[in-house]
Amino acid sequence: MPSAFQQSVIDEFRANAGRVGGPFAGSDLLLLTTTGARTGRPHTTPLGHVRDGERLLVVGSNLGAPHHPDWYHNLLAHPAVRVELGDREFETVAVPAEGARREELFARVVAEAPGYAEYQAATDRALPVVVLRLPDPQAQVREITSLADKLVEVHTWLRGQLAQVHAETEAHFAARAAHRGGGAPPAPGLGLQIRQRCLAFCQALEFHHTGEDGHVLPVMEGYHPHLRPVFDRLREEHRSIAAVRSALAALLAGAAIAEPDRFRTELAAMTQRLTAHLDYEEAEILPLLADVPWPPGP
């Protein structure tokens, strides 16, 4: 779509709680904001979607063009995305489906929106099907009024991503163990899923630590110089956790050929180090941030 037309759709979507007229009248649209793979800047794209339970399915059709759309390349580089759906807005991790799961979900999309079959027929590339999980409707939404609340929110999200990584690698090993007969076991279709979760976790943790080292800790140290040993320890832990992040990414990249028991042992050790750091940070810093308003004032 031309940039001016795309922006007009975005503006109309936001002004009317997701309702858009013209050629998209009656369509199920969402706005997907990704981070540019090269620029690092946010990019918002209107996309059609199909609801599948607690998931939204979007397809990288690019109208049947021979190349994947830019937004798809962006989410491969930066899996954490923002979704606007009607009058709702939430963040999630974008996970492309693979193998048999991709075929199953694409058939689900085509059953509801047959035009995607025409786009697939127009190109040799397999149109990516990306899963965007909706927020858990049972999850309690915390009111964020202080920087302490924001820190807890970030840490809760990080712990959740680690839990997802554990669950998905266990599903991977279960699929391998269930294979019977000769030949290599069928791919369980979790490689991209594990990669996206790991990348989202590692990028978010790096951004979180960079922000703390560059802004939060220096300010807090100015107000609480007697706690300098705590801040020094946190900075040192941030450096050591960076090595753990790299090791975690390398470990998960080899999940397809890993020996399960050894893999579980290494993943458990890394998880323990990461969560111990988050626990220490919360114990030492949360009381100092309880009276700092969030979002910050002008």
Compact overview of the structure:
By secondary structure, the chain is an alpha+beta fold. The protein contains 8 helices and 7 strands, in the order H-E-E-E-E-H-E-E-H-H-E-H-H-H-H. It has helices spanning 3-15, 70-77, 99-112, 115-121, 147-177, 191-223, 228-253, 260-289; strands at 29-35, 42-48, 50-52, 55-59, 80-85, 88-96, 129-133.
Layout of helices and strands:
Blueprint: H1 3-15, E1 29-35, E2 42-48, E3 50-52, E4 55-59, H2 70-77, E5 80-85, E6 88-96, H3 99-112, H4 115-121, E7 129-133, H5 147-177, H6 191-223, H7 228-253, H8 260-289
Antiparallel strand pairs: 1-2, 1-5, 3-4, 4-7, 5-6, 6-7
Uncertain residue segments: none
Mean pLDDT: 90
What would you report as the Rg, rounded to the nearest angstrom? 22 Å
- The H/E string reads HEEEEHEEHHEHHHH
The dominant shape is globular
Biggest beta-sheet profile = 7 strands, antiparallel
The strand count comes to 7
Strand arrangement in the largest pleated sheet: 2-1-5-6-7-4-3
| Alpha-beta content class | alpha+beta
Strand content: 5-15%
Provide the helix percentage: 40-55%
Q: Between the first and last Cα atoms, what is the distance in angstroms?
A: 37 Å
Count of helical regions: 8
What does this structure look like?
The protein is an alpha+beta fold and about 300 residues long. It is built from eight helices and seven strands. The protein has a seven-stranded antiparallel β-sheet, with helices on both faces. Strand 1 and strand 2 form a beta hairpin.
